[in-house]
Amino acid sequence: MNISSLDWAALDRIRDAFLARDARRGAYWDSTSDLACYDATFGERIGWKWDAVLRELKLRRWVPPPGPVLDFGCGSGIAGRRVVAAFGAERFTSLTLHDRSPLAEDFAAARAGELFPGLPCIRAGGVVDDMAPVGTLVVSHVLNELPEAGRRALRSVAARAEAIVWVEPGTHADSRALLAFREGLRGSFSVVAPCTHGGACGMASPGNERHWCHHFAEPPPSLYADSDWTRFAQRAGIDLRSLPYSFLVMAKDPAASGPIADAAGAARIIGRADHMKGFAEALVCDDSGLRELMLQKRDVPEAFKSLRDEVETPLFRLRAEGSKVRQADRWPEGR
Questions:
Q1: What does DSSP say about strands 244-251 and 215-216: parallel, antiparallel, or unpaired?
Q2: 0.90 cut: is pTM over it?
Q3: DSSP 134
Q4: 284 FRET partner, CA 20 to 30 A, in 62, 117, 129, 267?
Q5: Which pLDDT value is given to residue 262?
């Protein structure tokens, strides 16, 4: 990213349009230059969230099924490129780029073609072929801009996929909307992540409406020594260290996608734990639902330190007595 080459008027317009959450407006992009500026800045920040999700999938030893990939609502194509790069272009037969903007499809296909010259990169023309296999469906940051008709179309595409890898902003509204997709698809798909169980989402239980499933990604270590990124953050008024996201990974036949580490019985910390002197309070999700638990430093010192120091919160196998955690083993061992 070269800050001197950025079109700030275009970036301000793109960001304002996204934050407006107006499902009725048109495409963001007026030119290829708009897409290039976005891809190098806001798009790259989205890529860091994808990196966190893909790191977890590798930790779980899950891989998408071989075959085609469809990047739905691709924008500049950052999500599709991250997925193909993470698992290897040789695993996939094609990458289809879908967007309502022809400019976006052209840009995304061209960038992917540069990175993966042996992989067919197909422009969808704004329409998902009802007869073409979907394979792995990749979705990124679309829910805030989809009207109900668009969400119905996305549900139809998702139902035809073999696997779904989906990342959204870590807001309450987007997370709860993603939860609705999870519950609607759960009868046909197995849940791979972020959940450690395949049952009903605890967030959907009465009384948990204020909660939302979100996590935080770790930006690349080199970021803080990069003066261009520092200047970009100052000009854009953003905190580069704050990367909240929500995500969902599902598969119709997860066993066919490779050996999945058994996360049954593991628990996930939602968001960030609240730290006080000598203890932390955390919202915990596992197969028993949502629980608010206390982790005391004297009881579980390593887990306490992890929750304090690590941005990407690990999974734990917990043993609690009432609301107090008495044992917390990092999952999987050695992570």
A1: antiparallel
A2: yes
A3: -
A4: 62
A5: 62
How high does pLDDT run on average in the chain?
A: 90
Cα-Cα end-to-end distance for the chain = 32
The string of pLDDT tens digits covering residues 76-109 is: 999 999 999 999 999 999 999 999 999 999 999 9
DSSP string over 174-241? HHHHHHHHHHHHTTTSEEEES-SSSS--GGGSTT-TT----EEPPPPGGGGG-HHHHHHHHHHT--TT
pLDDT at 45 over 90: yes
Q: Are strands 67-72 and 92-98 parallel, antiparallel or unpaired?
A: parallel
Neighbours of 88 (CB within 10 A): 10
Q: Which residues contact 250 (CB under 8 A, 6 or more apart)?
A: 163, 164, 182, 185, 186, 189, 190, 191, 192
Residue 29 CA to residue 154 CA, distance in Å, equals: 22
For residue 334, give every residue at least 6 positions away whose Cβ sits within 8 Å of its Cβ, in sequence order, or none: none
Residue, of 221 and 168, whose pLDDT is higher: 168
303 and 324 in contact (C-beta within 8 Å)? Answer: no
Name residue 27's amino acid: A
Range 137-166 average pLDDT: 94
